[in-house]
Model the fold of this input.
Amino acid sequence: MSLTKEQQRLQKQLLKEGKAFERRFNKMPEQTKAAWIKLLGFMRENYAMDEIWDGKTLTFVVCGQPFCEIMLAPKQIDFSFHGEKTMAISSVDEIMAAICAKRQPDRVIPSEHFTLSPGGGRCDLCLFNHNTVQRQDRRVEMSLGFAKCYGDACDFTSTICNGDHLTSRKDCTIIDIGRSAPGLTADEVTHILFPYWYTKSKHYGKRDEA
Done:
């Protein structure tokens, strides 16, 4: 099995869009970039929402309805709850508190097959995991997802992880869930970001905390 020509074309388009975001993002002041990463990471960790990215505005959607927007301005990021006044972000912590007051965090990460890698990653959520491949092969999705999230033009359709790293104590790549390109679905965040996110997040604590 390998990517079809149509899937390869889609992969190239995803890479092109990702590079366009990177070019724009890299021109931002460091403080502004840090605020974007922190706020986007907060939303992805706490809310199971789809993201719509138009090249300037990132809209978070729940049950088909827009909830809030983050706008990438030339030297700052702006925020608004959908339909309400837009404000420049001066304190990310205040924005996060306002979001929680508006809607309680609702992301629930599957825990029925809770398997941690040495560094704390969720192997059971990984689409390369041999158990996942046996249940439902989603490695084409993973190939396109890696292009979308990380800028990797790789064909992973023949990749299967048997969990050897769990005994060898080796580990997968560390990523920041707020750093990857915007415009992901809630499912992509779960299966393409969360498995490789090494953190002390509540989602990676003891089994009964997941």
About this structure: Residues 28-102 form one domain. The helical segments are 5-26, 30-46, 92-102, 130-135, 139-150, 165-168, 186-193.
